[in-house]
């Protein structure tokens, strides 16, 4: 070794008349972090370099390969390769320095080092979580230009175990390309490995899509709750809205603040829109149901002015009103089947609630001409017609919502999942 280094200048490259070829390669042992928020990934690997230095050739040793000690590396020329997109990196030193340099009789040197590094990975998240990412690893010479050094690839340049597992991703391909760049000080050699990573959506199906899907369905339960159940329907609507809003916040907390909309944003926004519309639907139902109640006050006041004063009775006014209203309602039941054509004694009550508001009013006009109603009874029945007809309209809104909301959500799901299955126009596999 001393004789080899006697006339060796470590500051001079192996060749003066042509650039030195440095072959690169890696063996990936593990991916252990891929972050969308910081847009980087971390991995452990064996970094390999091979080149020939004719000054290191020899013929006086039977064993044609010599392993060089760490301290001797400082005495001869080695490439100054570094990771251009590196954020942090470290050599492994447990239990000894995990690197080796060997030289054979022809002057070919083989350098291997075990490294853990974190590299930047610009990500496109428009289709998140149905996206595929292209994460680069760039090798560049720090001080030697392309007149001195150029890069190539060893055979099987990108290797890894067959059972390599990644968190939330699948490694579907790896591509190599040249990334040489011109700087003010010259053109420097650069080679790049691109890892094509396809995201696994299983986590998001379990944690995001299924819970939000069930929350939307839960919001439809309010359509079957009685229109008078204000606390139940309002509570259910508010809980579902807050659930989707909280879920959206938790998902976006782990993602960078990008200026474009993501596929998962579309899903959560539409789910929020559905549960909000379900809550808004009850507002319309409540207003429709109370229209008849709003009309009652002026009608009753007008009737009370026309009503003659009656002598006091031992029976309370509320009980007299109840008996009188029951008698008029009973008379109306019997007259209804003659006027409106029903054969059932219960037809009045059933048809009164089920028929169209206009039919009820027309039937009432015919009933009025046959029954000897007082002004008060007339008023009471008008109020009943208005209130029940308004409730009928409110129930109709609920019935329409029971069908329209699930149908609209089904159509959205079909469109959404078909769109999600279509690869993006800028898919990493299509890029050179």
TrEMBL record:
- Give residue ranges for domain Neurotransmitter-gated ion-channel transmembrane: 209-417
State the residue spans of region: Disordered: 305-325
Q: Does the keyword Protein biosynthesis apply?
A: no
CDD domains according to UniProt: LGIC_ECD_GlyR, LGIC_TM_anion
Q: Does the keyword DNA-binding apply?
A: no
> How does this protein sit in the membrane?
Multi-pass membrane protein
- Mind telling me which residue stretches traverse the membrane in this protein? 201-223, 235-255, 267-289, 405-425
Give the Gene Ontology MF terms in alphabetical order: extracellular ligand-gated monoatomic ion channel activity; transmembrane signaling receptor activity
Which PROSITE patterns does the entry link to? NEUROTR_ION_CHANNEL
- Which Pfam family, just one, is annotated for this protein? Neur_chan_memb
Q: Name one GO cellular component term.
A: plasma membrane
The alphabetized UniProt keywords are:
Cell membrane, Ion channel, Ion transport, Membrane, Receptor, Signal, Transmembrane, Transmembrane helix, Transport
Localization, per the record, is: Cell membrane; Membrane
Q: What region holds the Neurotransmitter-gated ion-channel ligand-binding domain?
A: 2-200
Q: Which family would the database say this protein is a member of?
A: Belongs to the ligand-gated ion channel (TC 1.A.9) family.
What is the protein's given name? Putative GABA receptor 5
């Amino acid at each position: 070794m001393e004789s080899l280094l006697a006339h060796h200048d470590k500051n001079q490259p192996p060749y003066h008349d042509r650039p030195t070829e440095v072959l690169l390669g890696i063996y990936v042992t593990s991916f252990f972090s891929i972050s969308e928020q910081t847009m980087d990934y971390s991995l452990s690997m064996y970094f390999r370099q091979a080149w020939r230095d004719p000054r290191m050739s020899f013929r006086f040793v039977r064993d044609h390969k010599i392993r060089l000690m760490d301290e001797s590396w400082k005495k001869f020329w080695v490439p100054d390769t570094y990771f251009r997109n590196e954020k942090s990196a470290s050599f492994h030193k447990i239990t000894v320095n995990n690197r080796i340099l060997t030289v054979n009789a022809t002057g070919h040197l083989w350098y291997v080092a075990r490294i853990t590094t974190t590299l930047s990975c610009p990500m496109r998240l428009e289709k998140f979580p149905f996206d595929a990412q292209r994460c680069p690893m760039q090798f560049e010479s720090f001080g030697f230009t392309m007149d001195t050094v150029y890069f190539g690839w060893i055979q099987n340049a990108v290797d890894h175990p067959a059972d390599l597992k990644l968190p939330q991703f699948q490694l579907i391909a790896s591509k190599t390309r040249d990334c040489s760049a011109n700087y003010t000080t010259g053109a420097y050699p650069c080679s790049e490995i691109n890892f094509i990573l396809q995201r696994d959506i299983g986590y998001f199906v379990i944690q995001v899509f299924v819970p939000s899907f069930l929350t939307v369905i839960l919001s439809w339960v309010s359509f079957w709750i009685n229109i008078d159940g204000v606390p139940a329907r309002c509570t259910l609507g508010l809980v579902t809205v807050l659930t989707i809003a909280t879920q959206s916040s938790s998902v976006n907390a782990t993602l960078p603040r990008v200026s474009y909309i993501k596929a998962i944003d579309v899903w959560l926004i539409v789910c929020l829109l559905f549960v909000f519309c379900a809550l808004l639907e009850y507002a319309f139902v409540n207003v429709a149901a109370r229209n008849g109640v709003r009309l009652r006050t002026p009608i009753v006041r007008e009737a009370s002015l026309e009503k003659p004063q009656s002598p006091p009775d031992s029976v309370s006014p509320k009980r007299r009103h109840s008996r009188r209203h029951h008698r008029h309602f009973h008379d109306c039941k019997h007259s209804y089947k003659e006027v409106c054509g029903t054969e059932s004694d219960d037809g009045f009550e059933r048809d009164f609630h089920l028929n169209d508001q206009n039919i009820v009013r027309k039937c009432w006009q015919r009933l009025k001409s046959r029954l000897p109603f007082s002004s008060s009874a007339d008023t009471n029945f008008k109020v009943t017609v208005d209130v029940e007809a308004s409730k009928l309209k409110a129930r109709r809104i609920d019935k329409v919502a029971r069908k329209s909301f699930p149908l609209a959500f089904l159509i959205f799901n079909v469109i959404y999942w078909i769109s999600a299955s279509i690869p993006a126009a800028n898919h990493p596999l299509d890029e050179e």
